[in-house]
């Protein structure tokens, strides 16, 4: 009974109850955004075809921050088509009257054609999965793809465009986020623009935020609009453990946490003991911090010395997006 009741307590009361109650915050896998690569602008696990990075692409062909531009989709007969997206964050092809011609599994064996420095590079769509369960309570599905490119003589065979999954060419670990790009240094939403789409790999924060229902391509649960920029930023900060809001991540891949959002679209999993309270999150990082998930609190204080403990704050009517816990050891 206490565990069930804790779901509805204000956070100040819930904090006191957590040590005594078996609560229901389900841990997820690693939460790292990944630090930037040598370029200073792209993450080391951003999707790339033959070294042409495309974490975001303009549908109208504008070059992205790495100088890569979209050419289109090429069908198995060699015909080139404009690439567009639909409300399911799928890659689609329309005719001149905007009637749907191809989507989903129709595009398997088609190639995504990019251009960098005047040279075309291609990745082949090998797999499509339109029903990957999301991480919201209702399991709202997301769409994913496996896109590959040819290997080399020294490293033959198809290679997944998601570097972490390079040797799993059929693994659909790439998702599309329409209408937005991401600032990978500050760990915030970048552009909100219908001309741009983001390609996110499963081990990136943008993918995870989408799985949690926070992305520009779909309405936030129970509303008629996507999650706001502030909501999305708060989610990116939470996922990446950017406590200070500066873009510095205090976590590593493989670090599990428990989480719940204030909208109750992601809630407690029955029977789960959440462990040690970590933080309350807003658009600028941690509003308060007790026990960081992967470092000592002193490391965080060195960057933002004024960050308060959560036990010292009255949360009767908390204005926050997420609360997080680190699991018991």
UniProtKB/TrEMBL annotation:
Residues 1-26 form the signal peptide. Residues 104-294 form the ADYC domain. Keywords: Signal. The keyword Signal applies. The keyword Signal applies. This is ADYC domain-containing protein. It comes from Nannocystis radixulma.
